[in-house]
Amino acid sequence: MCYGKCARCIGHALVWLAILCIVANILLYFPNGETKYASDNHLSWLVWFFSGIVGGGLLIFLPAFVFIGLEQGDCCGCCGHENCGKRCVMFSSVLAALIGIAGSGYCVIVAALGLVEGPLCLDISNQWNYTFASTEGQYLLDTSTWSQCIEPRHVVEWNVSLFSILLALGGIEFILCLIQVINGVLGGICGYCCTHHQQYDC
């Protein structure tokens, strides 16, 4: 098994997942494409935690680029052993993966809380409230109650869709980073996978 190639594939996947997380988080600020709710501070407080931008986005880019660049590191031959440098690199990728786990975990937690609490909206009593906060997420199973939110229009669908996307993307990122922790440990113990040509160059 080529541990370096596996890490590189995980890195490329994480880049695209991070981009999607950032886009989904940005869309949360503009229900129905309107900017006035953000400027009037009529958005869920959990939107301002930047879970998709920071957690599922920026904190994922770091391990992603580390994984992609693993094979570029020319550190063979250290410690008196041809493949020792590559082993060290694989072990160090575990640290980057742990940062990714922290970021994606943050994204998942905030997205889950956002789904449970529901959006801030103008309700039928003409008050801005977290209408579904007391339902403990049960409103997700009863779409007939979503009409209690008058403004922004379709804000429940907007929040549920985007927080669900962030939850799913963050979960996938978490799993991929966890896989890289295992991959990095195995690559460090068993040795980085090099072709005969690479081993000769080292």
Automatic annotation (TrEMBL):
InterPro entries linked:
L6_membrane
Q: Which GO terms describe its cellular component?
A: membrane
Entry keyword Coiled coil: no
Q: In its keyword annotation, does this UniProt entry include NAD?
A: no
What compartments host this protein? Answer: Membrane
**UniProt entry keywords in alphabetical sequence:** Membrane, Transmembrane, Transmembrane helix
Membrane-topology descriptor: Multi-pass membrane protein
Residue ranges of the TM segments: 12-30, 45-68, 89-116, 160-179
Q: Which PANTHER family match?
A: TRANSMEMBRANE 4 L6 FAMILY MEMBER 1, TRANSMEMBRANE 4 L6 FAMILY MEMBER 1-RELATED
**What protein family is recorded?**
Belongs to the L6 tetraspanin family.
Protein name (Swiss-Prot/TrEMBL): Transmembrane 4 L6 family member 1
**Protein species of origin:** Hipposideros armiger
